[in-house]
Design brief:
The chain has six helices and seven strands. The relative contact order is 0.15.
């Protein structure tokens, strides 16, 4: 698969990491997250609210963010993080120092709890990836079905090993076995 205009490249920046944080500092001038770089317009920006508003303005076909969307991130974003003791926010001590040569590709959608666990693992391992966001009813679901034969997320493709895998437990096991220092 290759990234296209509706996919996103994610460079995780967990606390304690250096690999991608330097890239953000060089691009934006400071280490603040989240940070968006839109290669289509050359725009880069910090702050969740500004990013959401920009994305709706630029790509939302005239729509505005739903009332309460930004406020709901306290429940949908921070609460699960707090309940899971900050998983996905800090670098795992056994993460490999060098990234794989090619980005992994994750088919996901934001509110899927199993996809969230996989995104947390990718962050802890500081693995850059292409995010294919496949929401319920998405016209992009065909892409997932063509690749996997299913519409189930999460689904991971690793071009470095040729692995294509579903089921979050299998994906998590694969990621930590393949991309930790003990796997070297």
């Amino acid at each position: 698969m290759s990234a296209n205009l509706v996919s996103g490249q994610v460079y995780p920046c967990p606390k304690g990491s250096v690999r991608h944080r330097e890239m953000v500092k060089k691009s934006g001038g400071k280490e603040l997250f989240p940070f968006l770089v839109d290669p289509n317009t050359g725009i880069s920006m910090y702050e969740s609210g500004d990013i959401v508003n920009y994305l709706f303005q630029q790509y939302g076909k005239g729509r505005s963010p739903s009332v309460g969307l930004l406020e709901s991130t306290l429940i949908t974003g921070w609460m699960p993080t707090l309940l899971r003791a900050g998983r996905g926010m800090t670098l795992w001590e056994k993460a490999r120092a060098d990234p794989p040569p090619k980005k992994l590709e994750l088919f996901s959608y934001e509110n899927n709890p199993y996809a969230r666990l996989v995104r947390e693992a990718l962050c802890e391992l500081e693995l850059p990836y292409i995010l294919q966001n496949i929401g319920e009813g998405s016209s992009r679901a065909k892409l997932l079905h063509d690749v996997s034969g299913s519409k189930e997320v999460p689904y991971l493709i690793d071009p470095n090993t040729g692995t294509q895998i579903s089921d979050y437990k299998n994906i998590l096991s694969y990621l930590f076995q393949t991309y930790s220092m003990s796997a070297v």
